[in-house]
Amino acid sequence: MRTVFRPLLVLAAVLVGSSVGYMLLEGFTLLEALYMVVITLSTVGYGEVRELSTGGRILTIGLIVGGVGTVGFAVGRLLDFMVERRVGGSARRRKMQKILSELRDHFIICGFGRVGHQVAEEFQEHGVPFAVIDNNPEFIEELELSKIPHVAGEAADDEILEAAGIKRAKTLVAAVDSDAENVFITLTARVLNPSLFIVARASEPETETKLRKAGANRVVSPYVIGGRRMAAMSLKPATIEFLDTMTRPGEMMLCIEELKVGKNSPVAGKTLMDSQIRQKAGAMVLAVRYRDGTFEFNPSADYEIQVGDWLIVLGTKGQCSLLEGFI
After folding, report:
1. pLDDT tens for residues 191-235?
2. Residue 51 vs residues 22, 31, 32, 58, 138: alpha-carbon distances, Å
3. Does some domain include residue 36?
């Protein structure tokens, strides 16, 4: 941008300085002086406004020698900037399309507002692939600078969702500010990918039912969560402080992971004791989610792990990663 701004600034200085010079030397009005400068710089040859004095002629000579070159230089820089921006923009779009086309089992964030920003930060912290959809020019510029895969447009548009790889995606997060838009995004995404896991934001309590009917697997209200959080911090400050400390990003950060037991898993058919999950990985099994969606909290050591179970485990990031490879 500086390559264009500086020549234009010099050109503006030539226009103003020369106009003031004609006004002082020849007694021209502002319009007459500006007219004289413009026809001189543009070399159209319409002739002088009136007979020039020696000082006026010297000024005109200087304007022709220096000013015309300045105009050419400024116009050239401006054209270079426009061509570069157009070509560069096309190149960036092609590069972004290539990145998006290579995403598999990724997450899609619809809306890059306050909630979307936080979701993106968490995804980056966990190192999961994701793309963002938004139509705000400021957010698009931020995404470009951050080199985050993104698509500019309306998140409820079929073509935009397909450009973000909706049919290859694992999860979609509908986090725009409008509940109505989130319902429409959820409905459209569910049609395009019936197996997609959808988490939707709801500002109003009555929207939750609509979002679930539209196809959302989970509905989250930032206001409800915020209220519960504030209440918990008021009632149990020490407990919340402990959890915050242990889950804060860092080497000792604890994480809660969910791991699905596949049919080829070495722990399938074994009890928790025989699986030696704690001994081999160091992580603790907090709960088991059955295939029907129900949970068993703090399962006993003789619980037999079944194919299709989801193990909810607690440990450091290293322990959880080790266990993921083990399961």
Report:
1. 999 999 999 999 988 899 999 999 999 999 988 888 988 998 899
2. 12, 16, 13, 13, 53
3. yes
